[in-house]
Each structure stands twice: as C-alpha cells, then as structure tokens.
Write the structure tokens for this entry.
Amino acid sequence: MMMIDELRMHRALQLATLGLGKVQPNPLVGAVIVHNEHIIGEGFHQQYGAPHAEVNAINAVENQELLKESTLYVNLEPCAHFGKTPPCASLIIEKQIPKVVVGMRDPNEKVNGKGIKMLQEAGVEVVENILQKECLHLNRRFITYHTKKRPYIILKWAQTKNGFMDICRGVAHNPPAYWITNEALRVWTHKLRNEEQAILVGYNTLKNDNPQLTNRLYGSNQPQRFVLCDEREPMIINESFSCLKGSLDEILDELYTKNIQSVIVEGGKKTLQKFLETNLWDEAFILIGNVEWEYGVEAPKMPRPFDSMIHAENDVILKYAAGKT
C-alpha cells in the first residue's frame, strides 16, 4: 500500500514542478485524486493568486459524487486560512473527500498543522510524510523563506578552466573575446532566471558591464533585478534595477519584506565573496568554460568539494549545496 501512495505522491510532485517560476512567493503544489485506484482528477498551482492545486484537481473531476469515495494526494498540507483564495481544507471537507495523503506540513505559520487539524476534526483520514524528503527538496525555497525569514540564495558565476571569471579592467591587452561559456550554458543560465524570482549583482558589475540580466532564451518569466548600491558612489540611474543598501542581513531582510522567495547572486567577485564569507547561501553553480586566459580576475574559491557535475558539450556546471560535508 505504501508503494501505491508513493507513486501517487510522485505524480503530485511532477505536477507541482510545473508551477516553477510562476507561483512565488507561494509554494509549489500538485494534487492527484484517486478513485478505485484510478486517477480521476489532477491539478497544480499555476499562478500566484490563482486557484490552488487542490481546487484545480477537484474541478477536474467530472463526476463530483466520486469525491466522496476518493483519496486526495497533495505534496503540501492543504491551507486553512483565507489568502488570495479560500482555504483548501474547507473545500475538501465540503466535498466530503474521506482521505487525504500529505507529503509534508506547511512551514508557513498561518498553516503549519492547522490544515491537517481542520481535516481530522471533520473526520477526514490524514496520512502524513509520504516522500517527505522529496517534498522538502521541491519546496526548499518556500521553506527557507518561512523558517529563516530570508530568500533562498543561489550563487552563480562563470569561470575559465584556469580559474578566471573576469577581465582586468583598464588593461589594454585583455582577450579579444572574453565570453567564457558556450551557447548551451547560456540557455541553462536563462532557464535558471526563468525559475527564480530575483537576480542580484554588485555595484561594479552594473557600472562596468550594464548587464540586462533578463531571460531571453528560455520560457517567459523575468526575474526582478536588484543591485547592491555603493554608499560611496553616486547611485546608478537604471530604472530596470532596484537599489539595495546596507549589510547583507539588512539587504536580505528587505528582500524578505518584498516577498522575494529566491534570488540568484550573479556577482561580481566582491559581491559573491561577501555571501561566501558570511555563509549566506543555499546553492551554488560554477559554470566552467573550455577556455584559458593568461590573466584576469580570479574567481572565488568554494570552501568544499562540489556535489554534482553536469556536462554541456565541452563546458561543465559544478553544483554545490550549503550545509553538506
């Protein structure tokens, strides 16, 4: 029986990922409704402010009477409060669904056990913690936001095979072409921008390169753009970027109050080093191009070995996760 529950929860997780980049600061949620071992309804949270996964799955069931004999699988505890939409727990009770299988509890203090309690008090059988590890990983951004009161932080930079991430400014004999990675990794970078809520660079990066930091090669979601403004320099006039000032803790607190659930930190070196030295990061990606320079700005040094490697033609991506040894 446990295997069947896990298979259904796998499907809920698959559906949930379809909302990546669209639902923040809400969580990624998928729901599956099963009657006599047959899936009769599916749904996922598609857009912030739109109906939740449970609502979409219930509405997808053609014969609503079957709900009274069905099991609902959902990777995150149904909500119990009014937000942009009514409580999903109330709808489940109204539809008389007798059993709900939950992947993990919602860390949001407005929910955290309240949805499950509401269901149980109404006589609904609730099974918890099915594929909990996978559910926690999927909503790691949402969990970090609610438990650490800051965005989920992703560090990302490109470097040459011999460890240079940028040219030396003001030097005449820099490489004639200093794009480091191939087209495949440029698409991958835009995919990352499509999936995360915001992107952050330092003052010097914006001043020297004036980067677009938009997603043009994958999907249609655009990250919000922020720059760490230097107190000693005049503010850069660029309406596409919002200026952030203060310590990293103050900056992350401001992003939190702006409901930013995840942020990509794209550097340059000074900015990236600040996050590394204060251990304020959750994931890191180093894109290594198949080129070498004689000199340049050396990339930051990671404090630990990488966790995994992705090959893209002759280039590679090294992935790191904070907290692992």
In short: The chain has a mean pLDDT of 90.
